[in-house]
Give the backbone structure.
Amino acid sequence: MTGGKVKGPALVSKKAFTFAHGVDPRTGSVTDLHSDLLGKNVKGAVLVYPYGKGSTTASAWFLETARLGNAPAAVVTSSVDPATVIGSVVAKVLYGIEIPVILWPEAPSRVKSGDAVEVDAGAGTIRLR
Amino acid sequence: MQLNRQEERALKGEEGRARQLAMEILTKVGDAMGADSLVPISSAHVLAHYSSLHEAGIDMLEKYRNGGGRFAVKTSVDPASVDPENWRSFGVPEEFAEKQFELSRAYEALGGTACWTCVQYQTCNIPSRGETLAWAESNAVVYANSLLGCRTNKITSGLDLACALMGLTPRYGMLLDENRVARVAFRLSVGDPSDLDYRSAGFYIGRHCGSRVPVLSGLPKSSTLDSLKHLGSAAATGGPVTMIHFVGFTPGCDSAAKATGGEKVEVIDIGRREMEEVEGELNQTDEKADLVALGVPHLSPDELRVLAGELAGRRLRRGSSMYVYTSKQAYDEATESGVRRAIEASGARLTHSTDGEISPLKEMGFRTILTNSAKLAETIMSEGEIRMRYAPLRDVIAEATS
């Protein structure tokens, strides 16, 4: 849904995900106690989750995480999470940082954490290797 | 996405750098979300609190201000990270307050109303039925879609300012009829729900609806709009909820079947067991709380009066604090009517234009917080640094006072 071509290790959550109070922008570490990724780091990962939750500030947290260089390389969701789409668009406009966001309904069941993933948002493809 | 001539001009930069930037965001987000066009809005509600927006938020607002930006429609704003009037007496670090004021000045320079509340629909930005809005703040989004007969998506930070600057929003999601149909039905089977039960029911709905729009039946006729405000807020915290068809309360919704368009959907009962499940999730400890926090979302004048009644003749125990969050309007009204004095006679403090979710409670020294707000409990515990307890108002007051 937003552009770019990246590679990274997959980091997969099976639960609703939010950056708002859920990821520490200074480190990229997941701090949401309800997240199955608690303690993991999103920096440079291809972050996969089914859908977003919670506060409308999530895109601001996403943007601050990007500003500090700790954003995921790409985000893949099962249903559209406006927070990441908007965070990704604004990160590009404000800081020139490209974080592709891709929609793939089966992603959380087809991708496992640690899989090497190649995302090409322009072509709309995800390659698992 | 189809743009009209004026939108094209703005996108080319012919109306200044700020409107160009706003149009870039609107078109990119609109395209990503599958919108076919931009539509006019009658009001915007944006976010400008430092604890969530951080430095990046200041960069964004400054960029608009330096680009000659001005909000094109009525714009209200979510609570700030500090009480602008009384922050020093709450022990907020000066450096943190200054960052908030930097953001506040940048927001007000764009022409936003200085009404810092998450219940703008009860105070300073009250739309009429049928209006299209671009509102941030998940509780207000649920309220507008569910109880005001308005249409708004949950406008997240970044898109909010772009919508306010252009007076436009991309047409997708909850602006479209087909996405407003209920796809899952919840039935409340708790007679005479407590203040906590409304919140727990909402949270349960959020946890179990997935990305489906819910309908809720079984609400007592006596349910107040304030109760539904808290229910909706908890739902939006528990999951991606932007609307609940409240049978008997949502305009035009007199049955669950009406909300689902007659389609058969999954039915989920919410009884005592489900309430206890939520209470279990939101209670992390049985330690004594050093802060009681009430008013997330902001309490209305009615709720402040009820609280004053509950606190009458009671004093906070030594070593505990109670902060009660509200809007500037309700604060001023409570000051005038004596309700504020009644609340503060107990040792509790009324504070306005901020709330516990976004103020620096850890820096203010708190470690365990007791609340009846599912939204506050969930968001603070998510950060993992402060431990939360979640209980009905009556128990909260019994424990905190003598």
About this structure: Residues 17-33 of chain B form the longest helix (17 residues). Residues 90 and 170 of chain B are 41 Å apart (CA to CA). Chain B touches chain A through 47 residues (CB under 8 Å). The two ends of chain B are 62 Å apart (CA to CA).
